[in-house]
Amino acid sequence: MEFSQRLESIPTYEAGKPIEEVMRTFGLKEGDIIKLASNENPYGTSPRVIEAIQANAHKAALYPDDSMYALKSLLAKRFNISQEQCIIGSGSDQIIELCLHAKADPNSVILTAGTTFAMYAIYAKQVGATTICTSSSTHNLAEFYESFLAYKPSIIFLCVPNNPLGECLGRDEVFAFLEKIQKESQGQTLVVLDGAYQEFASYKDKSKQILPSEILERFSNVIYLGTFSKAYGLGGMRVGYGVANQEIIQALYKLRPPFNVTTLSLVAACAALEDEAFVRQTIEQNFEQMCRYEKFAESNNIRYIPSFTNFITYVLDAPYQVDKISEALLAQGVIIRSLASYKMNAMRITIGTQAQNTKVLSILERIFCEYA
Ligand SMILES: *Cc1c(COP(=O)(O)O)cnc(C)c1O
């Protein structure tokens, strides 16, 4: 069968290897495997979420509440916004997809950092749009502005903090940039501010915190994205949200599939949002444990990017090769993310629990030693 020509250039997104696949390939038991590849919450999910899912299981036969009233009102309260200023998606991924469909077509350009979340470019290709990346791999706003002037992009993606590198722009520089873009584009360029790891960044450094309500007050052309997949521990439930002015939200609503978030996912997200203590513990332990990876890197002469997220990226120099290292880790049941697909000799490791990290660091130590 022939498919649309657009499909020929679209890569298939490579998710972190699932635990089941590693069990089959290496003959390992589930308990022997540590998955630190997709930035999921290693502490699992709040017990209140599990209770809520169980208590609502009997609702499986009915369609969800498509107004998503319960979750929207909690989000509205949390962020000091109105329900009309928010949209909920099957992961914030779905909102990224809707943004591309709303703003881009085959004549459009979108602008991203050199190394950033792969889905921006993949969704762009799905609508036939061209992606321009800045030459710096991390976010450099001067370069973003130059490329904005040169290419007049329909959408600019800022990943704050950035996945897969972990660096994070500050609030003030982001706002100064947004002012310029709003003015120069007369509010026509949509800026997507992807805050998938904002909970981590704002805990580590208050000057990185970007509040959706502040964006709404100042910018008509910006959408803020958040997700329940990371700090909130709901990767398996697929819930994310977008906050923007009503005009943008209404445009995205035209493209939204009906019932795009399941009843149990909505219930889980409400419970997760209300268990603030769980999220706080997750974040505190994350940064406590991250120090161990920083010390390990320093004592083994490995470069790393200071991280404002729940992962750390090691940038490897010769003779170390990321593919060899990730294969060696995999054979021991440890799944991490090689950044070879981003053309970088680098690896991204999600910060695990204390016990997981102890095991991973001792395996890594051996692998690095055997290289020498
Ligand atoms: C994980 C992630 C998302 C979205 O995740 P969903 O599970 O689709 O909500 C979006 N952006 C970045 C940068 C991410 O790392």
3D shape: globular
N-to-C span? 52 Å
Q: State the helical fraction.
A: 40-55%
Major β-sheet strand ordering: 2-8-7-6-5-3-4
Q: Count of helical segments? A: 14
Low-confidence stretches: none
The largest sheet is:
7 strands, mixed
What percentage of amino acids are in beta strands?
5-15%
Number of strands: 13
Mean pLDDT: 96
Q: Which ligands does the model contain, each kind named once?
A: pyridoxal-5'-phosphate
Structural class category: alpha/beta
Question: What is the C-alpha radius of gyration, as a whole number of Å?
Answer: 21 Å
List keywords for this structure.
seven-stranded mixed β-sheet; single chain; 14 helices; alpha/beta; 13 strands; binds pyridoxal-5'-phosphate; 372 residues; globular; four-stranded antiparallel β-sheet; 14% strand
Task: Please provide a written account of the structure.
The protein is 44% helix and 14% strand. With 372 residues, the protein is of the alpha/beta class. It is globular.
